[in-house]
Amino acid sequence: MMRPAIAVYGATGHTGQFVLRELQRQGHPTVPIGRNPVPTADDAPGSAPEQWRWATCDDPDALDAALHGVGAVINCAGPFLDTASAVIEAALRAGIHYFDVTAEQRSARQSLATYDEDARHRGTVVIPAVAFYGGLADLLAIELVRGARAIEQIAIGVALDFWHPTPGTRKTGERNTARRLIVADGRFTPLPHPAPSCEWTFPAPFGVQQMRAVPLAEIVTIRKHIAARNISSYMSTAPLRDLADPHTPPPMATDSSGRSSQRFVMEVRADVDGQRVAIAVAGQDIYAVTAPIVVAACVQVLLNPPVIGGAFAPAELLNTREIFAALQPHLTVMRTEGERMAHPHGVAPFTSSSATVPRHPLGSDVQRSPGRSA
Ligand SMILES: NC(=O)c1ccc[n+]([C@@H]2O[C@H](COP(=O)([O-])OP(=O)(O)OC[C@H]3O[C@@H](n4cnc5c(N)ncnc54)[C@H](OP(=O)(O)O)[C@@H]3O)[C@@H](O)[C@H]2O)c1
C-alpha cells in the first residue's frame, strides 16, 4: 500500500529539519513547506529543491496548493499564535490530519477549543503540542493516572543542563505575553506572581535542582482530558538563565544526527487515590526529541485513524504504548515510584535504567474532565 505523504510546515527551521529527517529516516514520503522560497538549496536542506513547496500563512490558496495530495501536516513553524489557525484551517479544507509542536498555552487552547467540531465533522484530527513541552508530560501523566478514582495533583519537573535557544524559541517567548496558566481546584488559574519556586530532587546526574514554575502547553493538554484538581509545572533555573541572556548562542550539533549535547530529565509526579506515583525519563536535546514524538503520533493516526475525528490532547487519543515503544531509542526511564507502577498489569514499553520497569496498567477508566473542550 502506498504511504500517504506527510507535509512539514516550517521545514526550514531547526525543529522542522529534525522532523523532516525523522520522517525520511522512517521511509515516509515527505513534502517540505516553507514560507518564502530561499535563495539557495543549502538554505532548504533535506529534500531536492523541486520537492519544496512555499506558502505564507496569509495566503490560503498557496496553503491549499502546498497541502495538495498529502495525508497529514506537521506544523513546526512558531510562534504558533501566528501560524496554527491558518495551517489548521488549510488542513481542514484539505480533509487531512494536523499536528503541531507548540509549547504556547494560548495556541494549544485555541486549537483545541476552536477546531474540535469541524475536525469531527470531517473525520480528521487536530492534535497540538505533540512535542517535548506539552505532549511528553501528557503522555507520561496518563500512565500514572489511568484507572484512578481521585487525582489530587499532577506536577511536572523539567531539568536541563543548559538551553541554547533557536531564533524561533526566542521569538515565541517574546510573542507569548499572555499570563501563564496553571490548574488550581480544577480550573485554569493565572500563575501567581512572582512565580512559585521549589527544590526538586531528580535522579543523577541532576540531583537537587532549584526550580521555578514555568507552565507551558502541558497544563492545557493534561487538563483537556484528565480531571486532576491541581496541575503545575516547573523548570530548573539554569536553562531559564540561558534564555534570559541575549548572548546565549543557538544550539550547536554535536553528533551525526544534529543533536546538541543538551541533556534533559522530565519527571511527572501525581497524587492518585491517596498515593504518590512518579516517573522520570531522560534524553538528549529537547528540539531533537520532539521529532520522534510528533512523527510517532502522526504515523499512528495515519495507519490507524480514529473512528471519530476531533481536536485532541496527545494522550487523549493516542495509543501511548505504541508511542513509547517508538520512543525507546530516545528516552530512558530513570526511576519510577509508587505501588501503581510497581504492580503492573501490562507490557513494559520502555527500556529502564533502574530495576523498576514501568508497565501499562490496562484498566482504562481514566477520569476525564467534563466536556470535550479545553
Ligand atoms: N513544544 C516543544 O517542546 C517544542 C520543541 C521544539 C520547537 N518548539 C517550537 O517550535 C517553533 C519553531 O522552533 P524552531 O526551534 O524550529 O525555530 P527556528 O529554527 O527559528 O524555525 C522557525 C521556523 O518557523 C518558521 N516561521 C516562523 N514564523 C512563521 C510564520 N509567521 N509563518 C510561517 N513560518 C514561520 C520559520 O520560517 P523561516 O525559515 O522562513 O524564518 C522557520 O521555518 C517555536 O515556536 C518553538 O517554541 C516547541
Could you give the topology of this structure?
Elements: E1 5-9, H1 14-25, E2 30-34, E3 53-54, H2 60-66, E4 70-75, H3 84-94, E5 97-100, H4 105-114, H5 116-122, E6 125-127, H6 132-145, E7 151-160, H7 167-175, E8 181-184, E9 187-190, E10 197-201, E11 208-213, H8 217-225, E12 228-236, H9 237-244, E13 263-272, E14 275-284, H10 286-303, E15 310-311, H11 314-317, H12 320-327, E16 332-337, H13 339-342
Parallel strand pairs: 1-2, 1-4, 2-3, 4-5, 5-6, 6-15, 7-12
Antiparallel strand pairs: 7-13, 8-9, 10-11, 11-12, 13-14, 14-16
Helix pairs in contact: 1-10, 4-8, 6-8, 6-10, 10-12
NADP nicotinamide-adenine-dinucleotide phosphate (NAP) binds at residues 10, 12-16, 34-36, 57, 76-80, 82-83, 101-103, 131-134, 166-169, 172, 286-287, 290.
Description:
This protein is an alpha/beta fold. The protein is 32% helix and 24% strand. Helix 4 (105-114) runs parallel beside helix 8 (217-225) and helix 10 crosses helix 12 (320-327). Bound molecules: NADP nicotinamide-adenine-dinucleotide phosphate. NADP nicotinamide-adenine-dinucleotide phosphate (NAP) is lined by residues 10, 12-16, 34-36, 57, 76-80, 82-83, 101-103, 131-134, 166-169, 172, 286-287, 290. The site of NADP nicotinamide-adenine-dinucleotide phosphate has 32 residues, from helix 1, helix 6, helix 7 and helix 10.
Q: How would you sum up this structure in a few lines?
A:
The strands form 3 sheets. The protein has a 7-stranded parallel sheet, with helices on both faces. The protein has helices at residues 14-25, 60-66, 84-94, 105-114, 116-122, 132-145, 167-175, 217-225, 237-244, 286-303, 314-317, 320-327, 339-342, and strands at residues 5-9, 30-34, 53-54, 70-75, 97-100, 125-127, 151-160, 181-184, 187-190, 197-201, 208-213, 228-236, 263-272, 275-284, 310-311, 332-337. With 374 residues, the chain is an alpha/beta fold.
